[in-house]
Design goal:
Layout (H helix, E strand, L loop, with lengths): L2 H5 L10 H10 L3 H9 L12 H11 L3 H9 L3 H10 L7 H10 L3 H10 L7 H9 L4 H17 L6 H4 L2 H7 L5 H15 L7 H12 L4 H14 L2
Helix pairs in contact: 4-6, 5-6, 6-8, 8-10, 9-10, 10-13, 13-14, 13-15, 14-15
């Protein structure tokens, strides 16, 4: 029996309302873990210090719940928002909701988890990737490039042309020196270059080599790191 099952009467969570779930989360708050998460660049504000595996376990017991996901997001609690991303139904989420959530991103883990577990499954995923990459806001721009990386991994049937359209954006915004942005740009380039059954590796290596010679510190780092991984 799991930890959640022991404390929730054999895992009967689906009948819980928002208040009961928040109470359950707070019972598992771990200030020490929260402090450790802050050292890894996770925003400590409204953070309880609950690990992702525990949240995923809870999400499986709740199941998909569009209304509850929206309620959890509005609490502004870090783990509640992670949980919202796990239980939200990509078939029901609207573009308006996506735009509302992405502007609330204030930490790389929220951004990455919501993009990789929810947003990249929506019909507008490619559109949003390009749109958000052009946005000046740090975590919105990160979301755009995280979407590109996740789509490269998850959308195995997509033609190369869908990803080639992103290469100019990778080149243009490789000069963004903000840490959370440049790491996402690098991630997108590497994942595109590693797609199975595609011809993207060669252009990805060409771009990585070009960025390696850039005057921008950020672009050089992105290029050298991607080139090193792609030529192995």
């Amino acid at each position: 029996m799991s930890q959640w099952e022991r404390i929730t009467a054999f895992g009967i969570i689906t009948m819980m309302n928002l208040n009961k779930i928040i109470s359950l989360l707070k019972k598992h708050a771990n200030p020490k873990n929260a402090a450790g998460m802050a050292r890894f660049g996770i925003n400590p504000k409204n953070t309880l210090g609950i690990s992702i595996p525990i949240l995923r376990d809870l999400a499986k017991k709740i199941g998909k719940d569009h209304k509850l996901a929206q309620q959890l997001w509005k609490t502004k609690i870090h783990e509640a928002r992670l949980l919202a991303g796990f239980i939200e139904d990509y078939k029901l989420i609207t573009q308006k909701q996506m735009e509302s959530w992405v502007k609330d991103f204030d930490s790389w883990d929220i951004c990455d988890q919501v993009c990789s577990n929810l947003f990249d499954k929506t019909p507008v995923a490619y559109q949003k990737a390009g749109q958000w990459a052009r946005d000046k806001r740090e975590f919105v721009r990160r979301a755009g490039f995280v979407m590109m990386a996740c789509l490269a991994v998850h959308d195995k049937k997509a033609p190369d042309e869908k990803f080639l359209q992103f290469f100019p954006l990778i080149e243009k915004y490789s000069t963004d020196e903000r840490n959370f942005v440049k790491k996402a740009v690098n991630w997108a380039l590497r994942q595109m270059g590693k797609r199975r059954n595609s011809d993207l590796k060669k252009p990805a290596i060409v771009l990585a080599k070009k960025l390696s010679a850039s005057e921008s510190t950020s672009a050089r780092w992105i290029g050298k790191d991607a080139f090193r991984e792609l030529v192995l």
